[in-house]
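Bench notes, bay 3.
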Amino acid sequence: TGWLEGTVERDAKGFILTGQDLLRGGKRPRGWSLQREPWLLETSMPGVFAVGDVRHGSVKRVASSVGEGSVAVQFVHQYLAGI
């Protein structure tokens, strides 16, 4: 995740914030340019998704990471279809 340093929001421990964790007081992330709220695994950069151990609040297990990855693929397809 080093290549994302300074481009996506993180928590105090360095985990990447995604989805509802990005909403503060009902407000979208700073610089969020879309008319919708971030999707479940989407970072503060529209179209960039985080899964597994790097994501804030994730279950730190391989099977969970694989499952999140498959969900993220569907979000990528939805995102690309909308641009």
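Next record in the batch:
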Amino acid sequence: MNQTSIAVRALLMVLITSLSGCGSQKEYTGEKRFPITGTVSFKGEPVSSGMISLIPEDGNSNPAGGPIENGTFSIPEEKGPNKATYRVAVYWRKPTGKKVKDADTGEEIDQVKQVIPAKYNDATELSVVVAGNPEEDVLKLDLTE
């Protein structure tokens, strides 16, 4: 399985986890989840609008993730990770200045490019241990080239 398909599967798991409960009032009965917050910058610039994903290394814990806005993210307890070790993936797509045709609508849209290197997303080298303590579960990700 290649790194891109792993990243796609991880994002799908985050989306499914985020959407589970929509339309259903079923109470979560799994292991305790914890909130996690943090900041993300790339080459000194705050990630203005991106996505962060926490992918469990043990394969049993819940994935977590959410949007990055103005260099910060906050994943609430109800959507947060369990106590476990996670791989961290950061995505940030920026417009290239070019226009392309949308495959579905044929409309001209801004072409975007992933600006964060693969070592921080599809082939992530980032890892975090979620301790279940709000003071410890604050990430500061200063990503470089």
